[in-house]
Amino acid sequence: MKKKYSKRYKKLADTLKASETNTIEDAIKKVKANCTTKFNESIDVSFHLNLKHKKEEITLRTTTKLPHGNGKKVRVAVLCEESKANEAKDSGADLYGSDNLINDINNGKINFDKLVATPGMMSKMGKLGKILGPKGLMPNPKLGTVTNDVKSITKSLKSGQIEIKNDKDGNLAASIGKKSFSETNIKENFEAIKETVLKERPVNIKGNFILSAFLTSTMGVSYKLKLGK
Questions:
Q1: From the candidate CATH numbers 3.40.50.1970, 3.30.190.20, 1.10.3720.10, 2.130.10.10, the one assigned to the domain spanning 19-70+161-224
Q2: Per-residue pLDDT, 13
Q3: For residue range 18-37, what is the model confidence (pLDDT) as tens digits?
Q4: Which residues make up the CATH 3.30.190.20 domain(s) of the chain?
Q5: How many CA atoms lie less than 13 Å away from 199 in the CB half-sphere?
Q6: What angle do CA 210, 67, 201 make, to 5 degrees?
Q7: What CA–CA distance (Å, rounded) separates 214 from 184?
Q8: How far apart are the first and last CA of the chain?
Q9: Radius of gyration over alpha carbons of the chain, in Å?
Q10: What pLDDT, on the 0 to 100 scale, is given for residue 79?
Q11: What is d(CA 229, CA 226) in angstroms, rounded to the nearest whole number?
């Protein structure tokens, strides 16, 4: 079935030039100008990465701190010992506890976007991996979500730390703001995620690591970005 587009979208698409590339500053101006819906659209970036290697399949999975957050409210749950409960509460966790939180998850009550666990609680999680894994919610020490420093990680997740990961085709996408954000804040968030991606470049990858990048909004068209050297 042929995909149908609204008159609003077609009007935006008519302004595009297939071969045109934009500086990040110009792309932000155009994307914000095209946010003509009544709601506060998200501003998203997508990278196509050079992750091809003859001997192995490479995955980039890490975290990055957006200096201005992405405008999305993050609900954080902390699975911890009773002695850590007040720390979790004071750090801004939306949910916290031990057996009570485990029971809720087992019963399908997942009222959070991120789950933090102390190392001592990991042995109690048991079959939770089958529930949390497919949803991308399983705590991971490499991503900082298995830690005794409950206060630090909770505040980071609340204030702009996001997880980034490529798909099987080497594409990596993330929300870096809202249409209500200033152009400066969106640019600084873009530079932060771009810097993180470049730092994670595998040593065995030859040539350019970021092959292309695009900026768009929830209901807008995509603008190709000039990447520079």
A1: 3.30.190.20
A2: 53
A3: 557 899 999 999 999 999 89
A4: 19-70+161-224
A5: 11
A6: 25
A7: 18
A8: 41
A9: 20
A10: 97
A11: 9
Distance CA 220, CA 24 (A): 16
Quick check: 25 and 225 in contact, CB under 8 A? no
pLDDT tens digits, residue range 126-138?
889 999 999 999 9
Question: Which CATH number is 76-158 given?
Answer: 3.40.50.790
Burial class for 77, CB neighbours closer than 10 Å (0-12, 13-18, 19+): buried
- Residue whose pair of structure tokens reads 């934009």 in the numeric block: 22
Q: Compute the mean pLDDT over every residue in the chain, rounded to the nearest whole number.
A: 90
CATH 3.40.50.790-classified regions of the chain: 76-158
Other beta carbons within 10 angstroms of residue 50's beta carbon come to 17
| Structure confidence at residue 54 as a pLDDT band (50, 70, 90) | low
Residue with tokens 């999975």: 61
Q: Which of 46, 47, 63, 59 is nearest to 202 (CA)?
A: 59
Residue of 94, 98, 167 lying closest to 128 (CA atoms): 98
**Residue 16: predicted pLDDT:** 54
